[in-house]
Amino acid sequence: MANNRIPSGPNTPGSQQTPTQQGIKIFIQRDYSEGTAVKFQTRFPPELEERIDRQTFEHTIERLNEHFEMAETADCSTYCEGCLACLTAYFIYICTETHYEKHLRKVSKFIATQNERVYNPRGVHITDPILRGLRVIEITMIDVPNCQSPTGNNTSIRHT
Amino acid sequence: MASRRVTRKWEVFAGRNRFWCDGRLMTAPHPGVFLLTLALICGTCALHFAFDCPFLAVRVSAAVPAVGAALFVLTLAALLRTALSDPGIIPRAATAEAAALEAAEAGRPPPRAREVLVRGRPVKLKYCFTCKMFRPPRASHCSLCDNCVDRFDHHCPWVGNCVGKRNYRSFYTFVVSLSFLAVFVFACAVTHLALAARGAGVAAALHASPASALVAAVCFLSVWSVLGLAGFHTYLASTDQTTNEDVGIFRSCSIRFAFSLSSLTTERFRYFFAD
């Protein structure tokens, strides 16, 4: 207890849980083992065992991590975009969005699709990590026995 | 048919920032000094364009007002982008997450720091009692704005906002372009007075264009601090540090190794040019 060392690798406990009105919430923490780039732990939380299979979950997290890796990779076109933005005194961003913002939109779309096709029908909902400042992935296990989508019920999950 | 009013996120924002234009723009709680910065830059440049430019456009080159205008637009755009945008505020932990952290400690408040291994090196993540979360590496809490900011550099009253990950590039552009602008405007004012004094004498030149003297004085007084700041931030950027880190906390080489993206110099400047 005096040593609060929590190694952040793929085999470490990365989830915390708490019961709320909507159901149990699980938090997948960041994986810092390879640096400070955005990457989430792929360790499968045991609380999800009865609802989702391990492979599906790991596939989702790995795809998310790939998206963020692409967002943070800089190639020639990103450098040119940055230089052009500076030369136009950043007015170019009135018309376009940055490379990172494009990828964040892709992440949101990916999560929405995964929720709709895979997770919501099994009573699980994944919150977009950007809504939590890219710190955690919040997974809600919905208590409703009919397993309806939480987005249809506006009293359940309010993102503030 | 009654219209349902939607509560915007900025209306329930927990920090002390002020929002404008229905949440599209944000500043620190007291942006008074920022208005002073704006007034100084716009006022000095207005005098420059009104008094120095007509004289110099004829006597030296028509490029003088063009260059001045380009520098002014770049400086102002960078200043507004730095001052009115999100510096990289990390949202506070939602109630459920804060409760989960406390539950993990069996009811006691969470420990002050949690150690993680970043590339095999231990780094302490500090617990923020206001935001109720363990701050990511290189984040810091700004007491003026009452937010945790990612890659926190400093709170700049001149710009009326924190400087952090999301607006550091425009802040650097602002400081560098302002130094060029200050030097350029100063040079133009002095050239104007020198050319006018050749014919009529210094006293007559000053009497004919007192605004040039005022512009020269303002630029002379401000250029040292702006140039110094530009040089300091160039050093910080090239060594991949923030002002907050340079001040004294992160002296350990192991922490610098853990944070550095790569040993290549190009990777250091990636932060500036690629987004």
Automatic annotation (TrEMBL), chain A:
Biased segments, Low complexity type: 9-21
Region (Disordered): 1-21
Broad class of where this protein is predominantly found: endoplasmic reticulum
Alphabetical keyword list: Endoplasmic reticulum, Membrane
Membrane topology note: Peripheral membrane protein
Golgin subfamily A member 7/ERF4 domain segment(s): 26-138
Record localization: Endoplasmic reticulum membrane
GO biological process per UniProt: protein targeting to membrane
GO cellular component, one term: endoplasmic reticulum membrane
Domain of life assignment: Eukaryota
Pfam annotation, one family: Erf4
Subunit architecture: Interacts with ERF2.
Family statement: Belongs to the ERF4 family.
Name of the protein: Ras modification protein ERF4
Lineage of the organism: Eukaryota, Metazoa, Ecdysozoa, Arthropoda, Hexapoda
UniProtKB/TrEMBL annotation, chain B:
Membrane-crossing segments per the record: 33-51, 57-80, 171-193, 213-232
Acyltransferase recorded as keyword: yes
Cellular localisation: Endomembrane system
Enzyme Commission no: 2.3.1.225
Pfam families, per database record: DHHC (PF01529)
Keywords: Acyltransferase, Lipoprotein, Membrane, Palmitate, Transferase, Transmembrane, Transmembrane helix
Listed GO biological process terms: protein targeting to membrane
Catalytic reactions on record: L-cysteinyl-[protein] + hexadecanoyl-CoA = S-hexadecanoyl-L-cysteinyl-[protein] + CoA
Keyword Acyltransferase: yes
UniProt xrefs under PROSITE patterns: DHHC (PS50216)
Domain Palmitoyltransferase DHHC: 125-246
GO annotation, cellular component aspect: endoplasmic reticulum; Golgi apparatus
Coiled coil: none
A GO molecular function held by the record: protein-cysteine S-palmitoyltransferase activity
Family: Belongs to the DHHC palmitoyltransferase family.
Free-text note regarding domains: The DHHC domain is required for palmitoyltransferase activity.
The protein's name: Palmitoyltransferase
Organism per entry: Bombyx mandarina (Wild silk moth)
Phylogenetic placement of the source organism: Eukaryota, Metazoa, Ecdysozoa, Arthropoda, Hexapoda
Gene that this sequence comes from: LOC114247092
